[in-house]
Structures are given as structure tokens and as C-alpha cells.
Amino acid sequence: MNEHSNIVPLRQPDEIDDPLTNILRSGARQLLAQAVEMEAEAFLAAMKGLKRPDGRDRLVRHGHGPVRTIQTGIGAVEVARVKIRDRAVTSDGERIRFTAAILPLWARRTKSLDALLPVLYLRGISTGDFQEALAALLGKDAPNLSPGVVSRLTTEWQLEYERWQKRDLSARRYVYVWADGVFLQARMEDHSECMLVLIGATPEGKKELIGFQVGVRESTQSWHELLVEAKTRGLKIAPEIAVGDGALGFWKALDEVFPATRHQRCWVHKTANILNKVAVSVQASMKKDLREVYLASNRASAEVAIDVFAEKYGAKYDKAVECLTKDRDAMLAFYEFPAEHWDHLRTTNPIESVFATVRHRTVRTKGSLSSTTAKLMVFKLLCAASKTWRRLKGTNQLPKVSAGVRFENGIEVIQVPENHAA
Fold first, then answer.
1. Quick check: 103 and 81 in contact, CB under 8 A?
2. Quick check: pTM over 0.85?
């Protein structure tokens, strides 16, 4: 609009007047434009040595592409990509092309926004409601979030998921694995279905998504299919230990596919199960006593803490005591591994944290998800979350059990054969 115009735009009743957001968007637009220009200049500088036969530069700027709108977390930002022209053609007819990393050719949304869409979908927001739900943050009629765009995006995710499912695992080794079944009751067509998720930690300490599939109430057969599928794709070496909740289906399937893998029950799930068996007035003190068990400095101290717990509560809360003592070995298995890893091995938190806002929803919201759509949404949610998973602590990431080394209370102990000369 002309600066000298007397026309004053009127704010619509449903519009939000937020000068701070407008300033942020203006600043983001300027920074993005500068970054795009700097990336192009850096590319040209790297190619400065390429010349035409007449001595002129082979690669030169060639204006800008059409202005397009990128949907970001603070709303729509307009930007134009820099075009670079190759003025020489090689003998095979190939040209050098400039592909911007900051602003890919067909990008219409930031990756962080793509990661937000599965969360909204699993929370119960239908594709037709995305624009309305995000209007306050992204602006009215936010572009690139229409139902048609989201449907096309889902199709792309399906292709990405199929490629991921076919990846070769023969070169991978996972020393620890975490398993959990995630129920998305509010959006699943069949409430008996759940997402079976399997995460592994490499010897270098990096956590990765191994696999997941739609299962039936965490049954043994469903878990067996998931574990066999991973083994078929090359995962031959059994993990040292598996961490999971009390779902018997997983442990039975694990013993069938990887019988040498140790069992570690999740202390978060176990604590909740124990506290559910006592009065609310006792839960605070009982929870404190349970912390004395799994935070003990060594296994011997943890065993003593369990005995104290049983003596303290056995007379009145025998069911709670039985819930703890019947799984004593599986609850304390993590003490046989490096002490730096205990925080990681006590719980299935890598999986729990991903679905903290979408699991166990009991109110059925508008629209239901098919198993296929839910699987794709969970896949994208896990892919985004995997970039934030904490690496294992410490430097000794691989328990050397097979190499004559074991761990006692988190300390490495060398095993000397009996017939070895002193």
C-alpha cells in the first residue's frame, strides 16, 4: 500500500492484533532472505575456479525464483530462492545445479511443523480442522495445511515408511532394547489395537527406532511377529537386556526369539502397579521407600531395601509386597550393567515420553483413524522424537560379557578361568 494513502485497513473481529508476533515474522523474513543469499554466495565462491573457455565465470547468479510462502511455527513467511545459471554444458550435456539446503525446491512447510501434524492428528483433530486449530498461531487460513495437502503428505509418509521397513539391519547391533505398547484409544477404529514400539541402543550409545507395528493388546503373537521381522532383516545378535512393562506377551515372545536376552522390568510401571494396591494415604511414604530400592548404590543394598519394604508393609498391604517381590530378579537386573547406564535401563521412558500427550485418551473425538493411518502418524512422531533421545552416558557402552568381562554393581570385573596359572 502507498505510504501516503489515507486508506486505513480495518481489523476483522476474529483477527488477533499482536504487534510482537508481527515483528517476529518480519524479522524471520529478513533473516531467511539473508540466509538464502549467503548460501548462494558461498556456493558461487566454492565454484569460482570453474571458467568458460573465454575466461568468464561458468556459474553466475540468474535472479530469483517466484516468491513463495513457507509455513513456519510463527506463521507464514514469504521468501524467494536464488537462481544460479550454468553457462557451460559438458560433453555429456550435464549442467551444475544449485540445490539450496536451507530452502529446498518444493518446500512449503518447516520440518518442525510437519512433526506437529501427527501430534494434532493423534490428539483427535481431523485434517479439516488443522487450519482452524492453528489459526491463532499461524494466522487465519494458514496456507499449506488444507485437507488435500495433509492427505498428500500422508501418501508421502507411506512411501517413506515402506522404505524404512525394508532397511537392512545386518550391520546393526543393539546392546539394549526398550519395548512398550501404546494405546491410542481416542482415535483408533478398534480399541483392542495398540502400537508396539521397539527402540534399541547401539554400542556407541545412540538410541534408534528398530521397529513398530499395529498389534492386538500386546499379545505374544503380535510381539513375536515384530521381533521375528527385525531378526529377518538382519538383527542376528541378541540384545544384552530388554526393558519393558509387565505385559506377558512381550516377555514370552522375547524368550522365543532372543532367549539369551535378560529381562528388566520398568520401575515406573511397577511403582504405579504397587501404589494402586494401597490406600492413597499410604502412597507417598510407600513411593519414597520404593525409591530406596531402585536408587540404591548397589544390588546388595537394593536387596536389603526390598526386605525392609516387605517387613514394613507385609502385614497390612501383602498384595503390594507380593507385586514387588515376585519380580525381584527382573527388577534388579540393571545392576549387572555399567553404572552410567542405570538411569536408562530402569524405565521405558524413551517411549513413554514420546506419547505422553496422546496415549490413554478415553474420550473418543471426531473421526477415527484406520490402523494404516495411525501407523503412519506414529511413525512420523517417532522419527521426529528420535532426534532428541538422550545418548547413553559413559564411554563403556558395550557390556563385554562374552569377552570374559562382567559387571557387578556397575563395576567392570575381569573373569579369570580356574585353570589359569597365578
1. yes
2. no
| Residue 236: CA count within 13 A, CB half-sphere | 4
Torsion 300-306-312-315 (CA) sign: negative
Q: For residue 96, which amino acid is it?
A: I
Query: pLDDT tens digit string along 19-46?
Result: 665 666 666 667 767 777 888 888 888 8
CA angle (112, 98, 78) in 5-degree steps: 45
Show the cell assigned to 270.
Answer: 511397577
Tell me how far apart the alpha carbons of residues 107 and 161 are, in angstroms, rounded to a whole number: 20
What's the CA gap between 203 and 69, in Å, rounded?
Answer: 43
**Please, are residues 49 and 120 in contact by the beta-carbon 8 Å criterion?**
no
Is the CB of residue 40 less than 8 Å from the CB of residue 102?
Answer: no
Distance CA 380, CA 383 (A): 5
Encode pLDDT of 63-79 as tens digits.
Answer: 888 887 776 655 667 77
Neighbours of 81 (CB within 10 A): 21
